[in-house]
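Below is one such protein, fold included:
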Amino acid sequence: MQILVLSSSLDPNSRSRQLASLCKQVLEAQDVNTVFADLADLNVPNFDNNSIYGTQVYQHLHSVTDASQGIVLCSPVYNWGVSSELRKYIEYVGSTPPDGAFQGAF
């Protein structure tokens, strides 16, 4: 089983990033195959439903999401909602290209 732990804060001192790292450590201590993705490191461009599908960032995020049996979403809370980076990720990997070449990872 593979679990994706996704950190979506852009703040280098984020508590949600610290919690994501701790979550990864706890899962690995239980012999769970864990992939860690930090959206701050990936510089995710805005979603455009056209050229985005050919970018390395999209292909990486889609691949690790599709291969995972579970996802831990770690986000700061802004105005009672998750970060825009997390919403962007969900829109990214959940979408299917207009030509239907492949399906969204969710």
